[in-house]
């Protein structure tokens, strides 16, 4: 195989030809689908004169090419491994290309493939080149007309982007449908679906009074599980109108649920395609977290209609332009509909655990990378979640109204265009007549900035000074970093817990409540006056910037902030720090300090806190979080320390935990309050079961067998799956019998077993892979079994004998032949070998080397492995 090439942002050139219109005919056939593509090209005035037309193509069988109706000889074009070049072309012409592709043989799930007997597509980022020869790049935007022909019995439903325009019958039991999409779009937003599908239908009237038909398509037996998805869609449509003044633009909006999908969902124009696990929901089959995630992802894909589709990316380096912005929008959608504080905590937990680790890894990259080998490797927590944090910075700097002004100008300037992150920055700055040039450093530099803070208190002058120093570790793209623009939302708490009014030296009046300090330099100090008592700083409230905060808080300081901070996020952050300090002390061989149990007990008893915030605060930092701050990490000792602390808290607070559990056991329904109560109840149960005594196991088993909702049933199952007891086997069997016909629920059954820390899990996983419902071709199954073991089971993955690493490397090699994108996700579990203690580190490295030395590796896996071994 040829070595994958690195693509550089600095080499960007506009396309040689522009496209006005694309007309496609699909003659669907499982093993040989014919695609007739008729495209009107004209020379791009800004491209080099006389440039060739370079069309991308992958795994296509070329049947014919005609230029303005004349069939071309083979000598008139150059066919090569990755496409087709044509020279000496007129300034404007029509090119007709006929190709065949094989949907049945497409296990990579990119381009046109089959899932459950139905046809579907996935074109982002570069899947359209597996459908036809085209300039497969997002800055080529065109209107599309599509005709689909297929067997009528097996494919009664034929769907494409845009609006349906005509349909009819054909000979031989076939039929056709024609679709037209009036909005110019890049080809990555193309989608086609054909199959035997049922749909739920509803309608939505936009703010300006237009009626839009809404449809959610699925295999017929799941139709009764689509109500929540439809409700979520309507909520998303009305939220985008209210918050951003953005209306839907076509007459029809469709969502199709498919079982075989590489990621969560895809925002194709007018025809979103979803992984079925993010569509189907009923209280018996979906957890509360599933309900919230479905609403968020339906919102996310819908919001892309403006941020991504109407205004798209110039090239794939700009991915965060649409993804960071759209994640920010979906975060706000959830925050506006549920608890803002809980949403913020969950987003920050995800960022700190996964993105901070990525930023410290060999794959560290800026939110706008400057090079890549395989673009699919850059759909990362950095581009998405850190990207969303950077968008949030604009809102912190400009306020909600200023941010809205920036968004309005962005759409006014760029609707229908393919643009860059600089264009977004400029719209935000111009709309608010302010200089935001320092924001550019957030796009160009990788690494998590560290903010070191110290405080001096001068009792005589009543001055309190905060000193800030920012630094950023070296990352592959740069060792020296320019300072970042960092808004620090903060307050000063007085010993009685009240807020010190904030007045900086030189100001005339004091402000009550939080204020935001803007850091622009490597070192800055701020002097507050009129501070009569030594205060406790509450820093980075609401996590006002994606940085690592370093302030010398003691255990007592954190206990104080946990119970007094007016900022809910910082109460959570203090609880996490307190737990982390205790965990690090345990790793140092110390005994658990009682203050953590006391503080957690007070928090649990606090009537002023809602149940979900208590639950979030009581959840200990994950083993991955601990690993990041105890380098080189020893996963075995980290697990033991965390278990020790869980048991210590559980035994110190057992009565309180049990009575809290019992008080909350009646939570019913899907409202926020009931969901919050279930969350806290299950956190209490998890602590109790950590003690592994008969009473706690009986409570979990009782909950499992009597639960009337998946949240409680699944929480109990997960706890039992980690206990070596007879109730474990009973629960696992009962769950399988109850849900064997529901693929998405079976994924949960697979995952709890693969997450078990019991010895023997690796053998159990091998057996699970022989289970009749397991299928290596199905990404959800792979994620549930192999992904869970690699990413969510540090005990088994990091087994001292290297068996976990060897198993995962074997799976990566096998998966890579079927589906490189999925293999490339799994192989990342080995990437951080340099941060692990030396024995395991050597074993991980050896597996990476074994993968690197294998024949026929995909570009996807090659990029991760080669960068990891650098
Ligand atoms: N834009 C898609 C992700 C495509 C991933 C391609 N490897 C879903 C989303 O972010 O909305
Ligand atoms: Zn997205």
Automatic annotation (TrEMBL):
Question: EC number(s) for this protein?
Answer: 3.4.11.2
Mind telling me which InterPro entries this protein's record contains?
Aminopeptidase_N-like_N (IPR045357), Aminopeptidase_N-like_N_sf (IPR042097), PepN_Ig-like_sf (IPR038438), Peptidase_M1 (IPR001930), Peptidase_M1_dom (IPR014782), Peptidase_M1_pepN (IPR012779), Peptidase_M1_pepN_C (IPR024601), Peptidase_M1_pepN_C_sf (IPR037144)
- Any idea where the Aminopeptidase N-like N-terminal domain is? 90-189
Decide whether keyword Transferase is in the record.
Answer: no
The UniProt record lists the Peptidase M1 alanyl aminopeptidase C-terminal domain at 556-869
Q: Catalyses which reaction?
A: Release of an N-terminal amino acid, Xaa-|-Yaa- from a peptide, amide or arylamide. Xaa is preferably Ala, but may be most amino acids including Pro (slow action). When a terminal hydrophobic residue is followed by a prolyl residue, the two may be released as an intact Xaa-Pro dipeptide
What is a GO molecular function of this protein? metallopeptidase activity
The protein's UniProt keywords, in alphabetical order, are: Aminopeptidase, Hydrolase, Metal-binding, Metalloprotease, Protease, Zinc
The GO biological-process annotations, alphabetized, read as: proteolysis
Q: Which residues form the Peptidase M1 membrane alanine aminopeptidase domain?
A: 229-442
A matching Pfam family: Peptidase_M1_N
Record-linked PANTHER family: PUROMYCIN-SENSITIVE AMINOPEPTIDASE
Give the protein's function.
Answer: Aminopeptidase N is involved in the degradation of intracellular peptides generated by protein breakdown during normal growth as well as in response to nutrient starvation.
UniProt similarity note: Belongs to the peptidase M1 family.
* NCBIfam families reported in the protein's UniProt record: pepN_proteo (TIGR02414)
> What name appears for this protein in its UniProt entry?
Aminopeptidase N
Q: Which organism is it from?
A: Mariprofundus micogutta
Query: What taxonomic lineage is listed for the species of origin?
Result: Bacteria, Pseudomonadati, Pseudomonadota, Candidatius Mariprofundia, Mariprofundales
């Amino acid at each position: 195989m040829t070595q994958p090439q690195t693509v550089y942002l600095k080499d960007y050139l506009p396309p040689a030809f522009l496209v006005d219109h694309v007309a496609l005919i699909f003659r669907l056939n499982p093993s040989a689908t014919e695609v007739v593509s008729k495209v009107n090209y004209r020379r791009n005035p800004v491209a080099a004169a006389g440039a060739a037309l370079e069309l991308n193509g992958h795994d296509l069988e070329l049947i014919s090419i005609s230029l303005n109706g004349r069939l071309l000889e083979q000598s008139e074009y150059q066919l090569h491994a990755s496409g087709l070049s044509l020279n000496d072309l007129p300034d404007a012409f029509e090119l007709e290309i006929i190709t065949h592709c094989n949907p049945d043989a497409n296990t990579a799930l990119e381009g046109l493939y089959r899932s459950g007997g139905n046809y579907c597509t996935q074109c982002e980022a570069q899947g359209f080149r597996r459908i036809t020869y085209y300039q497969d790049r997002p800055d080529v935007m065109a209107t599309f007309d599509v005709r689909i022909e297929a067997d009528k019995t097996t494919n009664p439903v034929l769907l494409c982007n845009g609006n349906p325009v005509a349909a009819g019958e054909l000979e031989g039991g076939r039929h056709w449908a024609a679709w037209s999409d009036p909005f110019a779009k890049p080809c990555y937003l193309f989608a086609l679906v054909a199959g035997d599908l049922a749909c739920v239908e509803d309608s939505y009237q936009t703010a300006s009074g237009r009626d839009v038909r809404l449809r959610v398509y699925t295999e017929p037996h799941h139709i009764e599980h689509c109500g929540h998805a439809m409700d979520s869609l309507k909520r998303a449509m009305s939220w985008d109108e209210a918050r951003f003044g953005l209306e839907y633009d076509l007459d029809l909006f469709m969502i199709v649920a498919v079982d075989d999908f590489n990621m969560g969902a895809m925002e194709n124009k007018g025809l979103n395609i979803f992984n079925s696990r993010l569509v189907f929901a009923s209280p018996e089959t979906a957890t509360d977290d599933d309900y919230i995630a479905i609403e968020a992802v339906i919102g996310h894909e819908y919001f892309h209609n403006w941020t991504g589709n109407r205004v798209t990316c110039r090239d794939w380096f700009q991915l965060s332009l649409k993804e960071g912005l759209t994640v920010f929008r979906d975060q706000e959608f959830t925050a506006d509909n549920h608890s803002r504080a809980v949403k913020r905590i969950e987003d920050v937990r995800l960022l700190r655990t996964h993105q901070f680790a990525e930023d410290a890894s060999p794959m560290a990259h800026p939110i706008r990378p400057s090079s890549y080998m395989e673009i699919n490797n850059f759909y990362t927590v950095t581009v998405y979640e850190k990207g969303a944090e950077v968008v949030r910075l604009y809102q912190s700097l400009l306020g909600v109204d200023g941010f809205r002004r920036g968004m309005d100008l962005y759409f006014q300037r760029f609707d229908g265009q393919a643009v860059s992150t600089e264009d977004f920055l400029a719209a935000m700055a111009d709309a608010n007549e302010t200089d935001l040039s320092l924001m550019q450093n957030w796009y160009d530099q990788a690494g998590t900035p560290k903010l070191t803070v110290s405080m001096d208190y001068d009792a005589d002058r009543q001055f309190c000074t905060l000193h800030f120093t920012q630094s950023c570790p070296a990352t592959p793209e740069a060792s020296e970093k320019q300072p970042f623009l960092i808004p620090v939302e903060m307050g000063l708490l007085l010993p009685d817990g009240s807020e010190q009014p904030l007045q900086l030296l030189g100001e005339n009046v004091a402000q009550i409540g939080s204020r935001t300090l803007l850091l622009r330099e490597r070192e800055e100090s701020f002097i507050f006056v009129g501070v009569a008592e030594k205060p406790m700083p509450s820093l980075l409230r609401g996590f006002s910037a994606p940085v690592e905060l370093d302030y010398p808080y003691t255990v007592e300081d954190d206990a104080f902030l946990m119970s007094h901070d007016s900022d809910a996020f910082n109460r959570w952050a203090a609880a996490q720090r307190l737990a982390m300090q205790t965990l690090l002390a345990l790793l140092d061989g110390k005994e658990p300090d009682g203050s953590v149990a006391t503080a957690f007990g007070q928090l649990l008893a606090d009537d002023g806190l809602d149940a979900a915030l208590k639950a979030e605060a009581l959840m200990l930092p994950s083993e991955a979080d601990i690993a990041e701050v105890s380098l080189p990490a020893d996963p075995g000792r980290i697990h033991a320390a965390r278990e020790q602390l869980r048991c210590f808290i559980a035994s110190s607070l057992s009565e309180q935990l049990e009575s809290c559990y019992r008080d909350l056991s009646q939570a019913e329904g899907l409202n926020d309050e009931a969901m919050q109560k279930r969350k806290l109840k299950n956190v209490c149960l998890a602590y109790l079961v950590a003690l592994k005594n008969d009473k706690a196991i009986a409570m979990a088993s009782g909950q499992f067998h009597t639960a009337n909702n998946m949240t409680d049933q699944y929480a109990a199952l997960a706890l039992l799956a980690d206990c070596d007891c007879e109730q474990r086997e009973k629960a696992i069997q009962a769950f399988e019998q109850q849900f064997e016909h529901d693929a998405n629920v079976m994924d949960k059954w697979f995952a709890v077993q693969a997450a078990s820390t019991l010895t023997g899990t690796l053998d159990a996983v091998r057996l699970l892979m022989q289970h009749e419902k397991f299928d290596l071709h199905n990404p959800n199954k792979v994620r549930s079994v192999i992904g869970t073991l690699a990413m969510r089971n540090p005990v088994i993955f990091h087994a001292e004998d290297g068996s976990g690493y060897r198993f995962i490397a074997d799976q990566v090699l096998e998966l890579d032949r079927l589906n490189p994108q999925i293999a490339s996700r799994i192989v990342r579990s080995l990437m951080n070998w340099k941060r692990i203690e030396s024995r395991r580190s050597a074993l991980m490295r050896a597996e990476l080397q074994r993968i690197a030395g294998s024949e026929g590796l995909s570009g996807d896996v090659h990029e991760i492995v080669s960068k990891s071994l650098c």
